[in-house]
Structure formats: structure tokens, C-alpha cells
Recover the amino acids of this structure.
């Protein structure tokens, strides 16, 4: 049996997989089982922020697994403490971290902090969490309920109570009441369709929430780890949230989820935990990834890469004005609105056949999340493959 047959027989069919199996990679370049080369404009959905098979990350992880991988959170774990320090310092916020294993788990932690904070603050029990329409916060029972997409609430109920959806950022204020424990937003909706929030409006909401002493939770699972140019999008939006969640790109491919918060005394020993969270392996990955990205930020490389990518994308966008209606996004989280969903699906399939991987977001957005280390050559090669795909549309 080949891999496809084994997968079909033994793996639950929760993914509609494309007909390709990658076997190796280097930076933004991937090779499939037939030796065909691809340029990766997806970085595994925003995960391999420092590229595939990054030498520094590989070396750090090899050394780590050769000494210790896991001991449990019953004991001190040096890489965990150091990863927390690096993440907090890169953010510039006065926060502490909790380590889990995924974006959804980070958001679960964020909701637990907001709810416990709401419970001990005053006589009225605050439990409601306001999220936005078209948001995406994860796949656990709680985070799927936090996700503002009706279609994702079809099965799996009954769900936990207390999730309220605002149509848009303007509607948040009218939904606040004495039971509101927190407001959770993405500054740029990712899965929802690469939809940046208006900076002034976000700042107004952040200010309002501070006045009402309601924690603002920013889900930075996709926007964090320098995806849009600053370590967190919250820094770029010049706000000071009480809670930020990170995952995807911060581990560079090793599963990790982080909740960071200014609310340092809400969770006490025993309130929350994770067996794997923050172990030697994933924490060491975070340390190395954050070091690499900090250096790229400080040297100016990150900005140059982002400019190069966006110039190439702009040129591509302008060449196909009959297919694309708008260029959207910030930094290296970008997209092109496509006139219709069928065309979008065709583009993604043709792109793959021509040797470049791209993503879908929302109903009609072609999404680009390249590794932050992508080279000029890889950018050119990727867009050249995309041009070939467009000529076959
Ligand atoms: C991907 C994503 C999640 C879920 O992360 P998992 O690691 O798949 O649990 C949550 N929020 C946002 C904004 C995401 O992009």
C-alpha cells in the first residue's frame, strides 16, 4: 500500500487533502515524493516561520533531545523559563506566560484566565466572552463555540454557555454588560479571510475595556511571532491587551501554544496545567525561533523580506485585475480577494500543479503566509509559477 492508501484506511477523514506528499524541504522550498520542487507560500499555515529544516532550529532541537525532552511541570524547566523571558521581552509587555501545545489550547487558557478574573472581581459573576463574527479561535468544544461562524456550531453541542458574537468591532460596545468577562479578537482575522481591523477602532475598544476593567484578549495565534512585522500585532496596533495568545509561528514547527497576560495572579497552583506544555523540546524551539526572528527584525532583514514579498504580490495583483478585486493584509500575512470561490479553488490547484503552494481563507481570499525567511529567489520562483498557473486558468 502507498501512503495515500494507508492514510485513507487508518486516518479519520477530517481533512480534504490535496494529492501531494512532501518528503523534504529547505527554507521556503519543498520537495514531494516524486522529487518535484515547490515554493511554499504557506509555511504550513503560518507555522514554519523560520523556514523548513532551519539549521539553527535543527541543531538546537537535536542537542535538546539528546539531553532531555520531558520531565513534567512538577520541576523547573530552564528552556521554559527562558522561552517565557524571550517572548515577554520581545513583546515589550509586562506579562507572564503559560505554555500549552496549540492555538486552541492557548485560547482555552485565555478564556479560563478571563473567567476566573471575572469571578473574583466583585459580587457579580462575569462569565461572558464577546468574540467577532467570522473569527476563528480553534477546534475544542469551547474554542469552536468562541469561533464566530455559525456553520461550525452544527454538531458537538451542548456547548459551554456565555459566548456572544459581535457583528463587527463597532458592535462590541453595545454588547458589554455586567456579566462580560472578556472580549477576544484577532487583529487580522486569518481563517475568516485576511481581514485587518481598523487601528483607531481597535484602540477605542481597548480604551473602553480598560475603563470598564474588562480584559481584552488578542488571539495572535496567526498574527504573532513577527508575522506582520512586530513580535505581536498588538504592538503594531499600539494597544496593551491584558491577554495575548500565541502558537503557530512561535514554535517554528514544534507544537506550542502560549498564553501571556498582565493578570499574573489570577491563576494559582492547580488552576490550570498541561502535561506536555512548555517541555524541554518545545520550549527550546521557541527560544531558538524567537532569537532568529529577533535578529532578523533588528538587522532590518525582516522588513526587506516583507517589502520584497509585497512588491511581487502587488505586481502579480495588478497583472490579473480581471480575477482579483483587492489586495489585503499587513506584513507577511496577505491575501488577494478573488472574484468568486470556484476561481479561487482553481487557482490553488493550478498553483500546486505549477509548483507553488498557496492557501484559501474565508470564502474568496487567496492567502499568502510565506516563511519570514523566504529569499528573493524563492519569491521570484513562486510568483513565476503563479503566473504559469494563471495562464492556465
Ligand atoms: C490556527 C488558529 C487557531 C487554532 O490553532 P490550533 O493550533 O490549530 O489549535 C486559533 N486562532 C487563530 C487566530 C488561528 O489562526
Amino acid at each position: 500500500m502507498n501512503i495515500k492508501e494507508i492514510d485513507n484506511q487508518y486516518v479519520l477523514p477530517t481533512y480534504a487533502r490535496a494529492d501531494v506528499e512532501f518528503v523534504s524541504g529547505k527554507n521556503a522550498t519543498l520537495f514531494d515524493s516524486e522529487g518535484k520542487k515547490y515554493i511554499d507560500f504557506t509555511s504550513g499555515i503560518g507555522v514554519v516561520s523560520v523556514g523548513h529544516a532551519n539549521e539553527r532550529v535543527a541543531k538546537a532541537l537535536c542537542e535538546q533531545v539528546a539531553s532531555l525532552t520531558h520531565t513534567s511541570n512538577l520541576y523547573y524547566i530552564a528552556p521554559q523559563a527562558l522561552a517565557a523571558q524571550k517572548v515577554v521581552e520581545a513583546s515589550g509587555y509586562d506579562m507572564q506566560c503559560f505554555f500549552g501545545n496549540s492555538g486552541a489550547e492557548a485560547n482555552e487558557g485565555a478564556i479560563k484566565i478571563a473567567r476566573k478574573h471575572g469571578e473574583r472581581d466583585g459580587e457579580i459573576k462575569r462569565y461572558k466572552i464577546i468574540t467577532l463574527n467570522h473569527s476563528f479561535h480553534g477546534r475544542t468544544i469551547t474554542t469552536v463555540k468562541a469561533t464566530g461562524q455559525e456553520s461550525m456550531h452544527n454538531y458537538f453541542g451542548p456547548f459551554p454557555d456565555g459566548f456572544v458574537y459581535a457583528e463587527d468591532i463597532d458592535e462590541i460596545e453595545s454588547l458589554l454588560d455586567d456579566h462580560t468577562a472578556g472580549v477576544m479578537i484577532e487583529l487580522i482575522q486569518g481563517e475568516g479571510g485576511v481581514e485587518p481591523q481598523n487601528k483607531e477602532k481597535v484602540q477605542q475598544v481597548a480604551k473602553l475595556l480598560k475603563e470598564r476593567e474588562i480584559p481584552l484578549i488578542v488571539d495572535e495565534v496567526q498574527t504573532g511571532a513577527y508575522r506582520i512585522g512586530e513580535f505581536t500585532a498588538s504592538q503594531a496596533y499600539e494597544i496593551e491587551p491584558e491577554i495575548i495568545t500565541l502558537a503557530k509561528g512561535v514554535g517554528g514547527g514544534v507544537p506550542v501554544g502560549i498564553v501571556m497576560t498582565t493578570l499574573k495572579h489570577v491563576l494559582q497552583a492547580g488552576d490550570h496545567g498541561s502535561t506536555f506544555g512548555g517541555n524541554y523540546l518545545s520550549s527550546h524551539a521557541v527560544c531558538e525561533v524567537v532569537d532568529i526572528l529577533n535578529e532578523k527584525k533588528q538587522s532590518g532583514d525582516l522588513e526587506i523580506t516583507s517589502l520584497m514579498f509585497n512588491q511581487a504580490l502587488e505586481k502579480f495583483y495588478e497583472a490579473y485585475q480581471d480575477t482579483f478585486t483587492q489586495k489585503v493584509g499587513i506584513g507577511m500575512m496577505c491575501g488577494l480577494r478573488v472574484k468568486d470561490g470556484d476561481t479561487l479553488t482553481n487557482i490553488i490547484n493550478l498553483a500546486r500543479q505549477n509548483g507553488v503552494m498557496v492557501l484559501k481563507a474565508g470564502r474568496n481570499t487567496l492567502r499568502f503566509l510565506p516563511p519570514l525567511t523566504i529569499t528573493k529567489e524563492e519569491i521570484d520562483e513562486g510568483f513565476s509559477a503563479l503566473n504559469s498557473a494563471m495562464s492556465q486558468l
